[in-house]
Amino acid sequence: MVDTVVVPLLKIAVLLNAVLVAVTFLVLMERKVIAWAQSRLGPMRVGPYGILQALADPIKLILKEDITPVKADKFLFTLAPIMSLVPALVVFSVVPFGPDSLYYISDINVGLLFIISVTSIGVYGIILGGWASNSKYPLLASLRASAQLISYEIAVTMTLVSVILTAGTLSLIGIVEAQQESGLWFGFIQPVAFVLVFIGGMAETNRLPFDMPEAETELTGGFHTEYSGMRFSLFFLAEYANIIVISAVVVIIFFGGWLRPFPNVAALSFLDIIPAWTWFIGKIFFFLYIFIWIRATLPRYRYDQLMALGWKVLIPIAIGNLVLTGVAKVVL
Amino acid sequence: MTTLDAPRASTAQFDTNELVLNMGPQHPSTHGVLRVVLKLDGERVIDADCVIGYIHRGVEKLCENRDWTHIVLLTDRMDYVAAATNNLGYVEAVEKLMQVEVPRRARYIRTILAELQRIASHCLWLGTHAMDIGAMTVLLYAFREREFILDLFEEYCGARLTYNSMRVGGLPLDIPPGWDKKVLSFCDLMEGKLDEYETLLTNNRIWVQRTRNVGVISGEEAIGLGLCGPPLRGSGVSRDLRKDEPNAAYEEFDFNVPLGTQGDTYDRYLIRMDEFRESIRIIRQAVEGLPEGPVMGKVPRLLKPPAGETYHAIESPKGELGYFLVSDGRSTNPYRFRVRPPSFCNLQGLKRLVAGHLVADVVALIGTIDIVLGEVDR
User: Which residue of chain A comes nearest to B128, CA vs CA?
Assistant: First the structure.
């Protein structure tokens, strides 16, 4: 009873809270990093160096009036943000923070497939939100979101198949353990796959340079134009939770999850003093930083250009990579 | 036959009307209160109509009831991001009407002010144009440098946006001591910063993809639409009033007129980046060759130009800024005051430029035209 119900529930509660708190601080981190990139200070007023801004923002969002447009589809309008957030949080149930069973909620043997499927559901939140708003800008945004989904999802999934070939397993823990055995992170064995998955991840989370469904300077906020208050903040939470998910997936698949650098070199064993989950979270932060850095640097793609990129560049490369991996697997 | 016709008939049942989308007057990328009524097929623009007049203040009519001297103040309020250039065009038009000789030092300082203003205006254009396309950092960088220019203007005339910095017959003030050194050091600073902007944009693949072959317009068409300034020169038409009909002290300086070749948004971006550098060149020459002497010519305290009319145009950062003035020779205010604003004329081209492009390109094209609604509506 304790092992099957209480412990998992406790773990879920801790993880959910940790993720939601991490998201609020990620927003602060984004504002700070972008501010530094733009030679500004960023938030400085709330608390020392603006640290409490992470609390002030959610409080503001909760207290704001939650408006439902008169002509909106009330049911879908409420459902959309929930559909957006829930998959982003569900994914964490298979993310291993460390080797011990204490550090993950479940280890299912199709972990990677589970992640691909669940994160794809998230986009329905955007599509439904844009549709249910009964407004023109959100409608255009949801059209863009559906076009975008098809363009990158195939490439990313194809790429992940080549990783599965390399690792020989779909379980996320199995993938990390395979990297320990091979002594080399898959990011170095499959550099092309890493780049493809990272680009696809940016498209999946609607981040610049692929933030077409949001595009505040074109579509005035896109799918969440009509949203305010708590429902808007659910979309907001979902976006940032998704960024953490993508970073976590990239770290697990390509950068050894909780493993320290050079996991098989005995001379570096003093690094084992640092707990495994710290390595994992540290690596995640590195990729979060890259996400923010890219946002501060690049302009936005046009959505037909993203589709061209997806269909004409990413998918052929992904297929080529898959074939090469297969051949290498047979020959070596 | 009926079986073949059947599917065609059923597709006709779908509502395939175009979507009418109001972009503006409250929209982050219409640079003020421009309203563009877009007719869309999916995301493709079939037609676009500009609706203007949301900040029409009747400046032209207002000017007909003001002193010739007071009008300088109102010209500030038209293109408020290039107020000094608007001052310059107006005072020169009155000087032309009155046949007033302006001291050489005043003409030099006017040139410096106008070129500083051009850099400030282009900074604003660069920042907002890049922001519209999604590169948000450039906005902050460009505004950071614009701030230095505003500081220079503040030191010269005390104001940061609406300067009222010129008088008919010369200038109200000589430059403060040490100001010319500060202008020169700003020029050095700005040159480095321009390279910084270009590293973010010029060779950026996404930037090039977003601007190359977007809004292509040929030279003949651009002339036909009455475009002026960078949108005209981007199509390869060499028309720069600083060269063709030199005003202030431009004929004494050596500078090039950058021209585009393909007439697309990327070309217009490139020539504006070159114009930054040409402006810096002009400022350097003007500061180094600044002659001594008075800054105010001999003009009566109460201006009363002789009866007659004149049209005087200068090259503002956005294009040909013309003033048409009629004086009846008896009163102390103009009989007729009319402005040919470059933003207004260039905005005519938007309808032609956006046809067939996507919604995302519309904001890029509004940005590339570089409009200021205060000048469009007046």
Answer: A217
Is residue B345 within 8 angstroms of chain A, CB to CB? no
Whether A47 maps to a domain, the answer reads: no
Residue B8 inside a domain? The answer is no
Q: What is the mean pLDDT of residues A90-108?
A: 81
- In DSSP notation, A93-127 reads GG--SSSSGGG-S---TTHHHHHHHHHHHHHHHHH
What is the number of domains present in chain A? 1
Q: Which of B43, B134, B210 sits opposite A217 (nearest CB)?
A: B134
B119 pLDDT band, cuts 50/70/90, is very high
CB B18 within 8 A of CB B356: no
Rounded distance between C-alpha atoms, residue B215 and residue B368, angstroms? 9
- A305 and B209 within 8 Å at the Cβ level: the answer is yes
Are residues A294 and A33 in contact, defined by beta-carbon separation less than 8 angstroms?
A: no
How many angstroms separate the CA of residue A220 from the nearest CA in chain B? 7
B303 inside domain: yes
**Looking at the domain assignment, is residue B5 inside a domain?**
no
What pLDDT, on the 0 to 100 scale, is given for residue B252?
Answer: 87
Does any CB of chain B come closer than 8 Å to the CB of residue A38?
A: yes
- Residue A187 vs residues A166, A183, A201, A325: alpha-carbon distances, Å: 11, 12, 15, 14
**Of the partner residues A144, A208, A304, the one whose CB lies closest to the CB of residue B134:** A208
Asked if B145 is an interface residue toward chain A (Cβ–Cβ < 8 A), one would say: no
pLDDT 10s digits, B197-227: 888 888 888 889 888 888 888 888 889 888 8
Q: Which of A122-126, A177-181, A289-293 has the highest mean pLDDT?
A: A289-293
Between A215 and B228, whose confidence is greater? Answer: B228
pLDDT per residue as tens digits for the range B38-50: 888 878 888 888 8
The verdict on residue A16 lying in a domain is: no
Say how many domains are in chain B: 1
Confirm or reject contact between B126 and chain A (CB < 8 A).
no
Test A215 with B200 for CB contact under 8 angstroms: no
> Is B209 within 8 Å of chain A by CB?
yes
- Which range of residues forms the domain containing residue B212? 17-377
Q: Chain B within 8 Å of A41 (Cβ-Cβ)?
A: no
Question: What is the distance between the alpha carbons of residues B369 and B125, in angstroms, rounded to a whole number?
Answer: 9
Chain A CB contacts of B130 below 8 Å: 299
Does residue A136 form part of some domain? yes
pLDDT band at B66 (very low <50, low <70, confident <90, very high): confident
CATH number at residue B283: 1.10.645.10
Band the pLDDT of B14: cuts 50, 70, 90: low
Q: Is residue B3 part of a domain?
A: no
Say if the Cβ atoms of B134 and A215 lie within 8 Å: yes
pLDDT at B13: 55
Domain hosting A217: range is 67-331
Any A CB within 8 A of B65 CB: no
Please check whether residue A300 lies inside any domain of the structure. yes
Pair A286, A250: CB distance under 8 Å: no
Please classify residue B10 by burial: count the beta carbons closer than 10 Å to its beta carbon, then call 0-12 exposed, 13-18 middle and 19+ buried.
exposed
Distance of CA A4 to the CA centre of its chain: 29
pLDDT at residue A260 tops 80: no
The answer to whether the Cβ–Cβ distance between B210 and A38 falls below 8 Å is no
